[in-house]
Design a protein that fits this description.
Layout: E1 2-6, E2 20-24, H1 28-38, H2 42-46, E3 57-61, E4 64-65, E5 81-86
Parallel strand pairs: 1-5
Antiparallel strand pairs: 1-2, 3-4, 3-5
Length: about 90
């Protein structure tokens, strides 16, 4: 079940410069494990040691934040698109 994963610029060193990669998994947690197997060091930049998503990283499945779905247990299907988005803080 291939899923397209969009990689932000700061993480492209790990993916050999690729801005999109393919990975597999029945859910987001499995997808991240597959990404880690293909690109060692990627998961630790996205997840805390306990496996939860880091506070300043957002994952979107087809333009929907997984935190508003089933988080890491969000199911995936063929041709889904996951975007890794680092949160940007700012203001006055």
């Amino acid at each position: 079940m291939p899923v397209k994963v969009r990689i932000p610029t700061p993480l492209r060193k790990i993916t050999n410069g690729s801005d999109e990669v393919a990975a597999e998994g029945r859910n987001v947690a499995e997808l991240l494990s597959d990404l880690e197997a293909k690109f060692p060091g990627l998961k630790e930049r996205i997840c805390e040691p306990d496996g939860k998503l880091r506070r300043f990283v957002n994952l979107y499945l087809n333009d929907e934040d997984i935190r508003f779905k089933k988080n890491m247990e969000t199911e995936l299907k063929d041709n889904d698109e996951v975007s890794i988005i680092p949160a940007i803080a700012g203001g006055f």
